[in-house]
Design brief:
It contains three helices and three strands; from the N terminus they run αβββαα. The chain has about 110 residues and is α+β, with helices and mostly antiparallel strands. The protein has a three-stranded mixed β-sheet with strand order 1-3-2. A hairpin with an 8-residue loop joins β2 and β3. The radius of gyration is 14 Å and the shape is globular. It starts with a helix and ends in an 11-residue tail after the last helix.
Amino acid sequence: MRTRRDGFDELVLDALERVEHRVGQSLQQLEVAVEDIPPSDPAAWESAIPLGRLFPAEGRTAPRLVVYRRPVASRAAGEDELRMLVQAVVAEQVATLLGINPDDLEDGP
């Protein structure tokens, strides 16, 4: 049986795969993680609970994208909305990493 947590992890991996396809390059250097909630110490620019966060590469440490499961899931009314929100969070963070517009990574009509 697949848990909700497993299903969410799969949504994140699927979103990353779609973003890689749109970018036209592999994002193997990017570490991806799912955490239940963000840490209690928000970044200086965050005024609300973050849905995801990008930690840039430092020295030998690879860049890391973290998606926060509970804040994302709480904002989605159903599975389709959850999939679209996960896609948007992943696209926004990868766009930040690559220095491009997040709209360029969103799924088209």
